[in-house]
Design brief:
The protein is an alpha+beta fold. Helices cover 56% and strands 7% of the residues. Strand 9 and strand 10 form a beta hairpin. The two termini are 30 Å apart.
C-alpha cells in the first residue's frame, strides 16, 4: 500500500488522471460523468450530421423533425441572414405596454409564449394527492446565482457588472442605441434587486416539502392587485381553479410591493432584457456568443460550445425524448435493459433485507418503509413510450429556427396546462435516455436510470462484478436511498406528502441526518466551505447507496472489495474550474465530488480492513464518528 492511499484515497485512485486531464474549452469541468457526456455528444452529433446530409439515413417517424430542426440550428448563414427582425417584433409587444391593464389583456398569451414575467406557473403532481396534477406558482429566477450573493458575496458587484455589459451589448446587437440599452439593463437590475430579498436561498429550497402551500385562488389573487391572476388562470386552464400551490409565500406576500405602479417601467425593462437574452441562442453567431457571456463567466468557461454542438443541444432541448428513444434503442437495447433492471431488483432486495434487520426503526415504521420500497417504480434505459406531445412537433424548414422553437415551446406549455386536474402519468420520464444522470421522483415514487449512464466506469462487462457494484450499483442504491433521505422520507408509497414515521423514529432519523450535516458542514474546498444543510439529502443517499451496494457485492462469489472501493472513487473523478466549484458550493445540493468519494468510504468499516487504514492515517475516522443511516 502506498502512503497516498492512507492520506487521500481519491487522489490515490485518480492522481494520474488528474495530472493529464484537460478541461474542454467549452466546459467548466471534466471527469467521470462529463467524459460520458462528451462521448455521447460526439456520437450523437456525428449521427445528426450524417442524417442531416443524407435523407436515407434518417429513420421514419419523429426523428425526421428532430433532424430538420438540427439542420436549421446548424445553418448559421441563414441565422445571420434572418437577423433580429422576428425577435424584435416579439420584444415590441413588451415595449408597447403602457399599463398593467394592457399587460393583463395579453398575459395568457405572454405565458404561453414564454415571455419573462414576475412569476412562473407549472403543472405537476399535487404533493398531498400525488396521483393528480395541480397548478403551482413560483417566483422568477434572480440574476445572481443565489439570494445569498446579494448580501454575502464580495464578487456580487463584479458579477452584476459582467451581466450589465453583456446585456447592453446584446441589446445594441438587437439595434438599440447605447444609451437606451444601458437604461433598460439598469431597470432590469433594479427590478431584480426588488425580487431578491423575498425569495428563498438554495439552502432554504433544499427542503422541497416547504413548497407545498395551498392557497385559495381568491386569497392568492388578493395579494396581486396589478396582475389579474383569476382572469389569467381561467384563460390558461380547462376550468377556474379553486386553489393553487404557492411555492414561496413570502415572495407573493410581497408581490404588491414588487409589482407596483411605481415599478412598472422597471418591470418592463426587466422583461425586455430577460426576453432578449432568451432568444440569443437561436439567432446569429454574434448574439449566440454574446448571450452566453455571463453564464460562462460564472462557471469559468473559456469558450462557447462549437456551432455543431450548440445546434445539437438546441435540438436536444426540444426533442429530448425522441432523441433519447433513438439513442436508447440503438445503443443500449432490450438485453441490457433487462440486465440492468435485474441489477436494480437485486439492489432493492438487499435494501429490503437491510430494512428488515434495521436496529433503530420500530416495527411499525419498518413495515411502512418496506411497503414504500415494494411500490418503487423502476425505469431503466429508455421509456416504453415517447409522450404523444412529440407527434405535434413538425419542423417547418421554410420558417426560421426561432419561429419553430417558439411554436414548439408554446405546444409544450399548452400541453402542460391541459394536464391540470388530470391523473399523473407515472410512466412518463422527466429526463432523456441520452442524459448521463439518474433520479428519484418523490411524488411518483419511481427511480429512473437512463441508458446514457449505464456504461463504463459505472457499468461494463469488461470490469469486475465488484467494480460494477462500486459504480452503477452504488448509483442505483443512491437513488433508492433518496426515497428515505430527509426529503424523500416525508412522502409515502404513493408519493403523497404524508408522515408515516412514529414520533420516536422520526426524532432518531433527524439526529442521524444532523450527524451527516455535521460531517460535511464547513469542510474547506476550492477557497470556500461546504454547506452541510444544503447537501444533506445527497450525502444521505450516497451513504445509503455505498453501504447497500457493498452488501450486494459481498454476496457475489468473486468479491473484491479493493475493486469496489476503487471504482467508487473513480466514478467521482473530476477536474473543474475554481469559479465553477465555488458556484456549486453555493447552489448545488450535491457536495464536491472529491469529498463525496473520500468521506463516504470513511463511514464504512470494511474500507479500513480492506486497505489497512489505522488510527493516525489521514483517511481514518474513529468508529464513533462514522455516520451510518441506511
Amino acid at each position: 500500500m502506498t502512503t497516498l492511499l492512507k492520506d487521500d484515497f481519491y487522489d490515490y485512485v485518480n492522481g494520474e488522471w488528474l495530472e493529464t486531464a484537460v478541461i474542454p474549452a467549452d466546459k467548466p469541468a471534466t471527469g467521470g460523468f462529463q467524459d460520458l457526456v462528451d462521448g455521447i455528444d460526439s456520437l450523437m452529433i456525428a449521427e445528426f450530421e450524417n442524417m442531416a446530409h443524407d435523407p436515407h439515413a434518417t429513420p421514419k417517424g419523429r426523428m425526421k423533425d428532430a433532424v430538420a430542426f438540427y439542420r436549421l440550428a446548424s445553418d448559421f448563414a441563414q441565422r445571420e441572414a434572418a437577423g433580429t427582425t422576428e425577435a424584435n417584433a416579439l420584444l415590441a409587444k413588451i415595449e408597447a405596454l403602457r399599463s398593467y391593464e394592457e399587460l393583463n389583456q395579453q398575459l395568457a398569451s405572454f405565458v404561453l409564449d414564454g415571455i419573462a414575467l414576475p412569476f412562473q406557473l407549472d403543472v405537476d403532481a399535487d404533493m398531498k394527492n400525488a396521483q393528480m396534477n395541480t397548478l403551482s406558482v413560483y417566483p422568477p429566477a434572480t440574476i445572481l446565482p443565489d439570494k445569498t450573493y446579494y448580501t454575502e458575496n464580495p464578487q456580487a458587484g463584479e458579477m452584476l457588472q459582467v451581466y450589465f455589459e453583456m446585456a447592453v451589448n446584446v441589446l445594441v446587437a438587437y439595434g438599440k442605441d447605447q444609451a437606451e440599452a444601458e437604461s433598460l439593463v439598469e431597470q432590469a437590475i433594479a427590478f431584480d434587486k426588488l425580487i431578491a430579498p423575498h425569495v428563498r436561498s438554495a439552502e432554504e429550497s433544499a427542503d422541497y416539502s416547504k413548497n407545498y402551500n395551498p392557497r385559495s385562488l381568491e386569497e392568492f389573487a388578493k395579494q396581486a392587485s396589478k396582475i389579474d391572476f383569476r382572469q389569467l388562470l381561467t384563460a390558461l386552464l380547462p376550468g377556474t381553479p379553486e386553489e393553487l400551490i404557492v411555492t414561496e409565500p413570502a415572495y407573493f406576500e410581497a408581490f404588491d410591493i414588487i409589482v407596483s405602479d411605481s415599478h412598472f417601467e422597471l418591470l418592463k425593462g426587466w422583461m425586455i432584457v430577460n426576453q432578449s437574452l432568451r432568444y440569443t441562442s437561436y439567432l446569429s453567431e454574434e448574439l449566440r456568443q454574446l448571450g452566453g457571456t455571463y453564464s460562462r463567466y460564472l462557471s469559468g468557461i473559456d469558450e462557447a460550445a462549437p456551432q455543431q454542438k450548440a445546434a445539437y443541444y438546441l435540438t436536444m432541448g426540444h426533442f429530448s425524448q425522441v432523441i433519447g428513444d433513438y439513442y436508447g434503442r440503438k445503443y443500449f437495447g432490450e438485453t441490457a435493459k433487462k440486465d440492468v433492471k435485474h441489477m436494480v431488483e437485486t439492489m432493492i432486495a438487499v435494501y429490503q433485507e437491510r430494512l428488515r434487520n434495521n436496529t433503530w426503526l420500530s416495527e411499525e415504521t419498518r413495515q411502512k418503509a418496506i411497503i414504500k420500497l415494494n411500490r418503487l417504480g423502476i425505469h431503466v434505459g429508455y421509456p416504453d413510450q415517447v409522450p404523444v406531445i412529440y407527434d405535434q412537433l413538425h419542423t417547418d424548414e421554410e420558417k426560421s429556427l426561432l419561429a419553430n422553437a417558439l411554436h414548439f415551446n408554446r405546444l409544450f406549455r399548452e400541453d402542460a396546462f391541459k394536464k391540470w386536474q388530470q391523473p399523473v402519468d407515472r410512466e412518463e420520464w422527466e429526463m432523456s435516455a441520452a442524459t448521463v444522470n439518474a433520479y428519484y421522483h418523490p411524488f411518483k415514487n419511481v427511480i429512473v436510470f437512463p441508458a446514457a449512464i449505464l456504461q463504463a466506469p459505472f457499468y461494463s462487462l469488461e470490469q469486475s462484478t465488484s467494480a460494477n457494484y462500486g459504480g452503477i450499483g452504488a448509483v442505483i442504491a443512491h437513488e433508492i436511498s433518496h426515497a428515505f433521505d430527509n426529503n424523500g422520507a416525508k412522502f409515502d408509497e404513493y408519493g403523497n406528502l404524508n408522515n408515516w414515521w412514529t414520533e420516536e423514529d422520526l426524532a432518531h432519523f433527524e439526529r442521524l441526518a444532523q450527524a451527516m450535516i455535521d460531517e460535511f458542514d464547513g469542510l474547506p474546498f476550492a477557497g470556500g466551505t461546504v454547506n452541510g444543510t444544503l447537501t444533506v439529502s445527497e450525502n444521505i443517499a450516497d451513504a445509503g447507496g455505498l453501504s447497500c451496494a457493498l452488501e450486494a457485492a459481498q454476496k457475489e462469489s468473486d468479491v473484491s472489495l479493493a475493486d469496489f472501493f476503487t471504482n467508487w472513487a473513480k466514478i467521482w473523478r473530476t477536474k473543474a474550474k475554481e469559479q465553477y466549484q465555488q458556484l456549486l458550493l453555493t447552489i448545488d445540493v450535491h457536495g464536491p465530488a472529491k469529498l463525496r468519494a473520500n468521506i463516504q468510504v470513511q463511514n464504512i468499516d470494511e474500507f479500513y480492513t480492506t486497505f489497512d487504514i489505522k488510527p493516525g492515517d489521514p483517511m481514518y475516522r474513529a468508529p464513533e464518528d462514522r455516520v451510518q443511516i441506511w
